[in-house]
Specification:
Blueprint: H1 16-25, E1 29-32, H2 35-44, H3 53-67, H4 75-79, E2 88-91, H5 95-105, H6 119-136, H7 139-148, H8 150-155
Helix pairs in contact: 3-7
Length: 165
């Protein structure tokens, strides 16, 4: 359906027959990241005008799931993994390993296309940063965030997420 496809076209703008045809003909890859790490990343990038991480989380929670920015909306609401059968789910923090496998499966050369990743350093930094940011939150905010992202935490293996408790 290239005549109707533009970069801004949302899947929901197609009828059911078109959606089924497209989803059946594409390789579907979903990139996922711990929701708490997504929040930290958005805060560090200056998304929103909050002076502290705690007030940023307050703003996120006040927006609710339906009005949330796509930057921090739960992945389950954005990507519909229960409805769309993704061929690959790539976890942030394991990008080099998983993207190499994905490129190999697609028959593409892996070494020349992949940038250098420092997955171990990234995981270590985010672990420390997550601990610091999590300590800024009230018990109520921690519970509310866990509830806000409950479906992401159930759908994906974020076992080490601070929100999993």
């Amino acid at each position: 359906y290239p005549w109707r496809h533009t970069p801004e076209t949302q899947l929901g703008e197609f009828n059911l027959t078109e959606i089924e045809a497209m989803l059946g003909s594409y390789t579907k890859v979903l990139f996922v990241r711990d929701p708490f790490q997504r929040l930290i990343s958005m805060f560090m990038q200056g998304m929103g005008s909050s002076p502290s991480f705690s007030s940023f989380v307050h703003d996120v929670l006040d927006s609710g799931q339906h009005n949330a920015s796509t930057a921090w909306k739960p992945l389950v609401r954005l990507c519909q993994p229960c409805l769309v059968q993704y061929d690959y789910v790539v976890m942030f923090g394991f990008l080099r390993q998983e993207l190499g496998h994905l490129l190999q499966r697609a028959g593409l050369p892996t070494d020349s296309l992949l940038p250098e990743f420092t997955d171990t350093q990234v995981r270590s930094t985010y672990s420390w940063l997550s601990e610091q940011m999590f300590s800024e939150l009230s018990l109520q905010q921690k519970k509310q965030l866990s509830h806000f992202y409950r479906w992401d935490l159930a759908a994906f293996p974020f076992s080490s997420s601070f929100l999993s408790d």
